């Protein structure tokens, strides 16, 4: 692991690292130039040091999804007010360095303020060019008492994203306002990076982990758990059907009032994306709390979603995801969202129009302009009919030609952005069963139930051969199918854009020797178990 303290060293490291990360293709696979694949994705975990288990959770997620993981450690003077704790903020570089090395981090970027081009003073006194988020997003919640804080955050985050140019950057959901601001920043400035939100990590007591927790005495730590208890009370009331903002806030206030040493700064219910105040939860809301205990300022929040559950089923090609998902949706009474058919439809259109598979620009334009529709069908074999630009392609997208190219098309960033946006829009109200290769990890990371279906290569090849026979397709040998499936597994798991992976909170089901009905029954049983716990 490298410790980098200058911009020059960081740039040199990243350039060298990317050139070294060309993967060696395993024996038996031959790739032409167009299908050469590189695991070169870079993940950034921005921190101010004082690392704890919450940070390590972000690092573990980044390690799972990227070839290179950079952790930045920079106590940002621009985000501290004149009377805040900049000088005494925890600075534990040697301990942080050891934790990062143990966690498999490739490099730490730990610049000084001077190296980052900022002076050691707050944003109001700084002469550096500033990035200013929309005033409506930074005037409420923490923004009321921390003037200039989010301008300072946005300015340094933008600099870090420009310097590292990561494919993904990882932020915790505990800082809900910061997360919303960073997402808006990336969207508004068209920065080519995915912002990955990771769940809040808590101590056994429920206290959200924070670098500032070390300011607390043992007694104060115990008292601070009232924030989590207040959130739990709100969650219980919400699950019981309460949707009114004032009543939900009153429940949290009543709980926090039980600990007189906790001085509440605010308890608010806002839209988690826009941060606008909500009078009533229609789809989702974030109840956020800020309070002081002694000299320590604490924040926490919980997400409240009024929607039916989403079941996300991921797994490699040929694991039976689509057939299982159809059965699960039918048995539970949810909508089957055939995301794979959407990518197949785009692939079919690319082939129909004679566009070269490696012509990313033409494909990006095509994907951004095409119109895909999924409509229910009474045909049990094809319960969803697929239309693209008003052409029914339900059967056409299942051919060998489309199957052999869909992985390459799906790996292109512009295609995925266009289709994922539509999928997430459909998922806002929930009530879906969706399957793919990154449904639980990327498309619906907040899905209530996540399943990872898998099977051996030989089993999947046998199933694929049977499918081809049923469809009247030309016969393909098992050896060739095994080769094709192994190649596709490798492509899917090493691509830069949303690689195939098991979500950390997914349960794995090995389907060798199991019928579709038996697999579906396992998922339905798990669904009902989880449903009884909500």
UniProtKB/TrEMBL annotation:
(R)-pantoate binds at residues 79, 178. GO terms for molecular function: ATP binding; dCMP kinase activity; pantoate-beta-alanine ligase activity. Residues 311-529 form the Cytidylate kinase domain. Keywords: ATP-binding, Cytoplasm, Kinase, Ligase, Multifunctional enzyme, Nucleotide-binding, Pantothenate biosynthesis, Transferase. It comes from the Bacteria. InterPro entries: Cyt_trans-like, Cytidylate_kin, Cytidylate_kinase_dom, P-loop_NTPase, Pantoate_ligase, Pantoate_ligase/cytidylate_kin, Pantoate_ligase_C, Rossmann-like_a/b/a_fold. Residues 303-534 are annotated as: Cytidylate kinase. Beta-alanine binds at residue 79. It is found in: Cytoplasm. ATP binds at residues 48-55, 172-175, 201, 209-212. Its EC number is 6.3.2.1, 2.7.4.25. Residues 1-302 are annotated as: Pantoate--beta-alanine ligase. Belongs to the cytidylate kinase family. Type 1 subfamily. Belongs to the pantothenate synthetase family. Catalyzes the transfer of a phosphate group from ATP to either CMP or dCMP to form CDP or dCDP and ADP, respectively. This is Bifunctional pantoate ligase/cytidylate kinase. It comes from Amazonocrinis nigriterrae CENA67. The gene is panC/cmk.
């Amino acid at each position: 692991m490298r410790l980098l303290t200058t911009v020059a060293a960081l740039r040199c490291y990243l350039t060298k690292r990317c050139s070294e990360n060309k993967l060696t293709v395993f024996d038996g696979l031959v790739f032409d130039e167009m299908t050469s694949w590189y695991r070169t994705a870079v993940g950034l975990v921005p921190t101010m040091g004082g690392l704890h288990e919450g940070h390590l959770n972000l690092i573990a997620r980044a390690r799972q999804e990227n070839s290179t993981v950079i952790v930045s450690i920079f106590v940002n003077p621009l985000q501290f007010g004149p009377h805040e704790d900049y000088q005494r903020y925890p600075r534990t570089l040697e301990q942080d360095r050891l934790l990062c090395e143990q966690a498999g981090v490739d490099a730490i970027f730990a610049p000084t303020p001077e190296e980052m081009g900022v002076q050691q003073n707050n944003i109001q006194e700084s002469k550096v060019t500033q990035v200013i988020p929309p005033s409506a997003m930074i005037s409420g919640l923490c923004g009321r008492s921390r003037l200039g804080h989010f301008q300072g955050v946005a300015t340094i985050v933008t600099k870090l994203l420009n310097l590292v140019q990561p494919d993904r950057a990882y932020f915790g959901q505990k800082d809900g306002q910061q997360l919303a601001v960073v997402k808006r920043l990336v969207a508004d400035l068209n920065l080519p990076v995915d912002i990955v939100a990771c769940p809040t990590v808590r101590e056994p007591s429920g206290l959200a982990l924070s670098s500032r927790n070390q300011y607390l005495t043992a007694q104060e730590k115990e008292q601070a758990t009232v924030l989590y208890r207040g959130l739990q009370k709100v969650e219980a009331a919400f699950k019981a059907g309460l949707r009114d903002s004032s009543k939900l806030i009153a429940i949290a206030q009543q709980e926090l009032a039980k600990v007189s040493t906790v001085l509440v700064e605010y308890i608010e219910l806002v839209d988690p994306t826009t941060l606008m105040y909500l009078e009533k939860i229609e789809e989702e809301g974030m109840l956020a709390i800020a309070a002081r205990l002694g000299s320590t300022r604490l924040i926490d929040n919980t997400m409240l979603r009024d929607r039916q559950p989403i079941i996300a089923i991921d797994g490699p090609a040929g694991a039976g995801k689509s057939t299982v998902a159809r059965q699960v949706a039918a048995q539970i009474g949810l909508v089957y969202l055939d995301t794979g058919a959407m990518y197949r439809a785009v692939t079919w259109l690319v082939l129909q129009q004679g566009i070269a598979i490696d012509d990313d620009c033409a494909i990006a334009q095509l994907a951004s302009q095409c119109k895909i529709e999924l409509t229910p069908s009474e045909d049990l074999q094809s319960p969803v009919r697929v239309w693209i630009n008003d052409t029914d392609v339900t059967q056409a997208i299942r051919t060998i030609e489309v199957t052999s190219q869909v992985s390459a098309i799906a790996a292109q960033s512009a295609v995925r952005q266009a289709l994922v946006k539509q999928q997430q829009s459909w998922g806002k109200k929930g009530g879906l069963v969706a399957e793919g290769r990154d449904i639980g990890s990327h498309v619906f990371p907040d899905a209530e139930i996540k399943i990872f279906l898998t099977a051996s290569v030989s089993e999947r090849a046998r199933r694929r051969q049977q499918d081809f026979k049923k469809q009247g397709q030309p016969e393909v040998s098992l050896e060739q199918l095994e080769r094709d499936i192994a190649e596709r597994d490798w492509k899917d798991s090493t691509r830069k854009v949303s690689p195939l992976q098991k979500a950390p909170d997914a349960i794995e089901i090995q389907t060798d020797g199991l019928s579709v009905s038996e697999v579906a029954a396992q998922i339905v049983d798990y669904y009902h178990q989880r449903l009884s716990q909500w």
